[in-house]
Amino acid sequence: MKKNLSILGSTGSIGIQTLQVVQNEPEKFEVLALSAWKNIELLKEQIVKFKPKFAVVKDDKSAKELINKFDHKINCHILYGEYGLNKISTLANVDSVVVAITGMGALKPTMEAINAKKQICLANKEIIVSAGEIITKKAQENGVNIIPIDSEHSGIFQCLEHRWHYDNIEKVFITASGGPFYHLKESALENVSIEEALNHPNWKMGKKVSIDSATLMNKGLEVIEAHWLFNIPLHKIEVIIHPQSFIHALIQYDDGSMVAQLSYHDMRIPIHFALCYPQRVKNSLPRINLEKIGQLTFKKFDSKRFPSVELCYETLRQGGTLPTVLNAANEVAVNAFLNKGLKFNNIIKIVSLAVEQHQNILNPNINDIIEQDREARKLAEKICKENI
Ligand SMILES: NC(=O)c1ccc[n+]([C@@H]2O[C@H](COP(=O)([O-])OP(=O)(O)OC[C@H]3O[C@@H](n4cnc5c(N)ncnc54)[C@H](OP(=O)(O)O)[C@@H]3O)[C@@H](O)[C@H]2O)c1
């Protein structure tokens, strides 16, 4: 039987690759709903190709623009905004919701999908950083599986398939390629361009996650994500540099065995795994050729050189609404770097300042998270203006 999918963020890097997986295996998947935000042109092409029953865009204006592109002859309900995203996350005949929206815009539809007991294929990391405890608790209460798409977390998920060894975990290693600037001198970081920062050595991704990879904030966010998704104590999670990006995660067990997950650095592999879960299904995606690679190398991560990772550890140690503020300020600062001329090495300074100035709220509920996210954005905007 086909799996019915709702794909949130279908016009982004993960969304497009999800549709490539679907297109390669049309007998396994049916696309019931798609969402974009501003990219109406690409969404139109996707509607023509995949014939979803629902499509969602940012607002009324974009919805009209999309309908006009079809000369009003369209066999698909066009919805918009938060209502639209919530609707396609809860459709009765949807089996899995792919969350490939970037940023906190994914929070409400994901919570709705969990409440409606849909399986979640989760690419978005910002919502787990910001509200991981609430989301994972809600998923547990509703018996909902969250299958990670982020390659490192797909790796941990696969290494942990034999969950009865969970208590024997000594260490979980998350690998980091180091991004485009790992070997640059600190002084050289001041003048890096947007193009250089977007140019990741191993992965082609959306802009936000590419900049996060260049600041290494992405690794810090992934540490927080791993903590909440797998309930692993923070002191057991370690980042290790592995420039080739073939190993995505390793688990050291207390009997001396280490289990690793390897795959080619192609996001369609973890996407395919998440879409097919709980089955493991044959595909024709690229394989690793060990003889060709020759060697896999590792180095200790230099946390002094890239303080973003330690900032994430410290933020999570303190907990409460601090991770929410860290995430919100980071979204604002990355945006300011991409659009407003903020210098690259000021991104993490702004995040640190926002975190420092925040009055932490312990044991926040979802409304606290939403409100503090909003406040942190205002604060970070203000700090950005002072630094541009
Ligand atoms: N790309 C990767 O390889 C990768 C790997 C691991 C994890 N992730 C994570 O996956 C998520 C998506 O990453 P991506 O690289 O695919 O991002 P992306 O290329 O920027 O795509 C984002 C998608 O979300 C839509 N969108 C943007 N803002 C929105 C909002 N406020 N409300 C609703 N929809 C919105 C965009 O629509 P428009 O195109 O119409 O603007 C687009 O469809 C991120 O959280 C990222 O950290 C990505």
How would you describe what is shown here?
The chain has helices at 13-24, 40-50, 60-69, 81-89, 107-115, 126-141, 151-159, 194-198, 207-215, 217-230, 268-276, 290-293, 308-318, 322-339, 347-357, 366-387, and strands at 3-8, 29-35, 54-57, 77-80, 96-99, 119-122, 146-148, 169-176, 237-241, 247-253, 258-262, 299-300. The mean pLDDT is 96. The radius of gyration is 20 Å and the shape is globular. 46% of the residues lie in helices and 15% in strands. The strands form two sheets. A seven-stranded parallel β-sheet has the order 4-3-2-1-5-6-7, sandwiched between helices. It has a five-stranded mixed β-sheet with strand order 11-10-8-9-12, with helices on one face. The protein is an alpha/beta fold and 388 residues long. It starts with a strand and ends with a helix. It has a domain at 3-144: NAD(P)-binding Rossmann-like Domain (Rossmann fold, 3-Layer(aba) Sandwich), CATH 3.40.50.720. NADP nicotinamide-adenine-dinucleotide phosphate (NAP) binds at residues 9-15, 36-39, 100-103, 105, 123-126, 150, 203, 205-209, 267.
